[in-house]
Amino acid sequence: MEKFMNCDLLIKNGFIIDGTGNPGFYGDLAVSEGKIIAIATKIECEAERVIDAFGLTVCPGFIDPHVHEELTVLTSGKFEEFLRQGVTTTVNGNCGHSITPYSSDNIYEYMAKKGLISVETKERNKRVVPAWSSFSGYIDVIKNKGTNLNMGFLLGHGTLRWSVMGDTKNRKPTVEEEKKIGYLIKEGMEHGALGISTGLTYGPSKYADTDEIITLSKVAQKYDGIYASHIRNYIGILEAVKEAIRIGEAAGIRVQVSHLTPNCPEAFDEILAARERGVEIAVDTIPKSSGHYRRKDRLFQFIVSQESIKTPEGRRKLLKKIRFKDQLLVINTDDPHMENRTLKEIAYERRIDVDELILNLLENDSPNLAFCQGGLIRRDFPGAPYEDNIVKNPLVMVGSDRVFGEIDDPSAWYELFRKGAFPIFSDLCRQKGMRLEEIIRRITSLPAQQFRLSDRGMLAKRKAADITIIDMDNYYYPSDEEIDYKNPLTMARGVKYTIVNGKVALDDGTLKEINAGQLLSRNGRKL
């Protein structure tokens, strides 16, 4: 038994899993001034608040290393969908997209051109959000606004390359351009970025060869930064993973392989082999994903302007750019004979070709008509039980890759299962016999170590009091049969309390806007 005069919060009678992978135990945990001050089988102190965790599991707050919330937080810092999974920390700026360099107007332009925010959001943010002109300026905006989650940030290679080279260019940067990109990485790292990210499957990063990425990764490595990569999938998953490993070896930098599909188990073996020979590498995967649901106005934005389909050339360009047309699903059609069916099926019944059907649909008067690209369950992230080698690989963590979407217009662009990434991952691992303590390690201390978040990811004295308290028997996200495909706001269940820096953000299932989140840099530094 440990005794203290007083503490801010005392959590009693819980099953404590500390994030290290060690066996859990029943006990108490005390918090004061945002830090854990004691963990023991029994603690006595005068507490401002006591939470009885009998029958519940007490864990470190979960860490999501792969999200895109850097612009979302400008509109809302609630992050309910994360708190209801037990997530307390996110790493943003993935896939080569980030909030630097140059002005906020430049970033909004980039994000809108890439279809990552709507044109309406771009114009609204320019009007109502304070402007910034550097990484540190952006940090000041978020600090003044507040957030319920801890957030760390990567520097996006795509945004940097696009800004310096003046749009997406299919060429190498000049010597002077490469120097500018390198300087901007140096500046961002000095201001507190965690590292750099690439999106090598799409422009502009896809036009960067391996040597370009190595050169720029060396700049981040000097600051103990990380290289996180949406790998070059079009050359083959295994070969793309090998490229990421080569970059890590040549630059001497830590490597995070982002959202790797479990359909290529040998790629996970390649990552483990690289780690065993000295490359500091890890991997995240999306446990389950639907295709992307996009309302027709957002589909236009991703492909061509809405005005352009009024011309024959615009229609031809549109139809050429839509991928996998036959397999697109349509929803919100106001026609039960069409609803949630593929264009191929509908066109066959109507005895017209798919291209004609698409144009008919896009020209109709239904403003809520939406298309699903990839179907209810994506083949690359099917939510099926993992292969044994993936389950046994100690370097595998969750990265939800939740799509940007619009806080004030959630039906414009959404996905169904990523808001349940953590309970889905837990369920998939438990199906394969993984110990709960190991599951928790994969989503707490593993990402904390990988991203150098040294005061997070474990329940221990003097660590930040990021804590989640869960009813593990009811930690859950709806299945294929249960999910409402028209509802973009489905949340996970089972988390009772989520505590961020000692403040209760989810309180017995009720969301609180406490804005206790901190902006994190490497090795315990706060921004």
Description:
- This is D-aminoacylase.
- It comes from Desulfosporosinus metallidurans.
- InterPro entries: Amidohydro_3, Metal-dep_hydrolase_composite, Metal_Hydrolase, Metallo-dep_Hydrolases_sf.
- The protein is an alpha/beta fold and 527 residues long.
- The chain has a domain at 292-373.
- The chain has 18 helices and 23 strands.
- The strands form 3 sheets. Strands 1, 2, 3, 4, 5, 19, 20, 21 and 22 form a 9-stranded mixed β-sheet that branches. Strands 6, 7, 8, 9, 10, 11, 12, 17 and 23 form a 9-stranded parallel β-sheet that branches.
- A hairpin with a 2-residue loop joins strand 2 (25-32) and strand 3.
- Helix 9 runs parallel beside helix 10 (265-276) and helix 13 (343-350) crosses helix 14 (354-362).
- The two termini are 37 Å apart.
In short:
The protein is an alpha/beta fold and 527 residues long.
Could you tell me the mean pLDDT?
Answer: 94
* Low-pLDDT segments: none
Q: Decide which structural class fits the backbone.
A: alpha/beta
Terminal residue distance: 37 Å
| Radius of gyration computed on alpha carbons | 23 Å
**Number of H- or I-type helical stretches:** 18
Q: DSSP strand (E) fraction?
A: 15-25%
Query: What spatial form do the alpha-carbon principal axes imply?
Result: globular
Helical content stands at 25-40%
Number of strands: 23
Report the sheet with the most strands, covering strand number, pairing sense and barrel closure: 9 strands, mixed
List keywords for this structure.
single chain; 527 residues; alpha/beta; nine-stranded mixed sheet; nine-stranded parallel sheet; 18 helices; globular
